[in-house]
Dihydrolipoyl dehydrogenase
Amino acid sequence: MADFNVIVIGAGPGGYVAAIRCAQLGMKVACVEKYLNPEGQNSLGGTCLNIGCIPSKALLDSSHHYYHIKKHAGEHGIKVDNVSIDVATMLARKNDVVKNLTQGIAGLFKKNKVTRLEGSASFVTADKIKVTTKEGGEQEYTADKIIIATGSVPTNIPVAPIDNQYIVDSTGALSFDSIPARLGVIGAGAIGLELGSVWNRLGSQVTILEALPEFLSVADRKIATAAFKELQKQGLNIQLSASVTNAKVVGNEVHVSYKDVNGAEQQTIVDKLIVSVGRKPNTAGLNAEAIGVKISERGFVVVDEHRQTNVPNVYAIGDVIGGPMLAHKASEEGIMLAERLAGQKTEMHYDIMPWVIYTWPEIAWVGRTEEELKAAGIEYRVGQFPMLASGRARAHGETAGMIRMIADAKTDRILGVHLFGISASELLSEAVLAMECQASSEDLARTIHAHPTLAEGMHEAALAVDGRMIHA
């Protein structure tokens, strides 16, 4: 008889959610996690809670308060002199947020009777793993089903070798002990823009080098264009078609060489350089291939539509299988898989996946863009509402951006919603729910929205699809 019904390898947003849901469904579950926090203690929550989503949002929030007080408090009649930022206190708050949430997961494991195994897991056979503790101790465990949920790690590039002092990855960028006067960022994706925004608000001169010729090429073009202009206005120096060729530490500086849009060699000198060029699957040390689990050329664990590998009792979810590398995607896969293991027929819709970039204002979207619909030959109508016309946004003093709703020209079914503006991440949920329920733009147009709210902008965008927007 196996030690457990299910063993989950990895306690990130996919792994811990899968473990809890399996336990709720009556299975005997263990979850293995190897991550050690800066104090050397085992910590649950994976990249998201420890060194990703949560700490970055804590710093974004702190830096936003500081920036708002310095730049905009006076507009509200609030007079503040000699404003300063204590970086150590800001980082301590960030660490407390992380600690409380990771301890919360430990409490959820106890509540749901999930056995916590601390250490690195590797396959011995298809139904047996070995867990190696930080002290070097080893213990083997068997399970009827094993779920790989080991997530991803930052991608490094040879031209900018990480030294964790001057050239850092996204993890290192969360722990600068002082504000760099000049900060370089390689990559203008979500991570680069968010981390660049944090330190820009605190006073860094930030240069972001993006190899692609388009800003946020996956986003709606009008949204991306508006966001690019606003972020540049805030002080982010975003260079497109800038391909980094070399980065080296010279004294206490980093000399970064890159080719510009014309192919000419350029150089910028910074005090710190963040490398944020994406993430790659984390399968190191798993020994999965040794038991026959198929791994793709890019290093992802290969699974079918139900997240089962080619080894019948081994499954995988989250970043390690590819697709959108998003915490909420991993969590939903964890729930789906747990319920399927319990005999349910749960499915997951990847075409209705919310995306958010937590700049200020935020960038968020769900569904398809105009460009995608044009390429597919699908006729559509667009409703666009400027945040400038929102009474609540004006009261906030945050009028940058817009809401764009795209609906099928024949059926009126909502095909995509794209936002750039204050609280875009929260406003997006209405669009996600509407699309999940196959709603039309008319459904939202006929739905009463409270006044004054930012959500009225969604209502106006829906009205605009049919050319009857009221307030703009």
Summary: The first strand starts at residue 4 and ends at 9. The longest helix spans residues 87-111. The chain has a mean pLDDT of 97. The chain has three domains: 4-154+280-341, 167-277, 355-465.
